[in-house]
Amino acid sequence: MFLRLPVIVPGLALAVLLAHAAPAAAQDRGYSGQTVTCSSNDNRRNQCSTPFSGRAVLVQNLSGTRCVENRNWSSGRGFVWVDQGCRGRFADSRGSGGGWGGSGQGGTLRCESTDRRQRTCSTGWRDAVLVRQLSDTRCVQGSTWGFRNGSIWVNDGCRGEFAEGRGHGGGNGGGWGNGNPNYQVTCSSDNQRRRYCNWDRSQGRPVVVKQLSSTRCDEGRTWGFQGNQVWVDDGCRARFGAR
To answer: What's the rounded Cα separation, in Å, for the pair 49 and 227?
Structure first.
């Protein structure tokens, strides 16, 4: 007597495995929809196909490099591209509404200034980063949005999606001071050249309190900080205050 064993088609078995494994991994992070992981290896640009009907949203940053939309990743119908070391897990923006609702577990939170009024959104995070600008109004940290006491504030029409920031030690963590409101430094990138300005680290973490140039001052792109210095580049000129 012979036993009839089920025939397993390798491709079908793999598809079934992926269909069950991928959502399960995402559910561990609080998201129940289908996700796609895309990686920029060796800092090279990589484009990944997606089954999404719309644009993608970053639901988990998997790399040491911060993934920032329109800087080192973006998407379109049916694809996501990543660059400069970004590696992330992405979901369909049309199906992610509220799925990540500020859980602080790698998800995003939407905070919107309607009628140009200031609004505060509680997060429970120790720091925050802007991952997607949703408004025509430019969202500039320290000017139209910021983070304090575990909450994001937005103003003057800024609407954006934010994620938990992990790179700065969060507020007073990681050796930062309490944020002296009277301490300010102006730093200018003349002739589009990078310039370094002294910064007293004990005063707190630097943030843009007033942009003085027509060039947009974006942290990590046209300005940043290291040690006891603030740097500006590509024409950014701004007044920095302590948080």
So the answer is: 40
**Counted domains in the chain:** 3
pLDDT tens-place string over residues 106-158: 467 889 998 888 888 888 777 888 877 888 888 888 788 888 888 898 989 99
Q: Exposure pattern of 222-235 as b/e (b: 16+ CB <10 Å)?
A: bbebeeebbbbbbb
Residue 179 covered by a domain: no
Condensed to tens digits (0 to 9), the pLDDT of residues 160-186 reads 888 876 544 333 333 344 456 788 999
Domain that holds residue 151: 108-164
> Rounded to an integer, what distance in angstroms lies between the CA atom of residue 95 and that of residue 52?
9
129 domain-assigned: yes
pTM, whole model, 2 decimals?
A: 0.35
Ramachandran area for residue 21 (φ above 0: left; ψ -120 to 50: alpha; else beta)? alpha
For residue 147, tell me if it sits in a domain.
Answer: yes
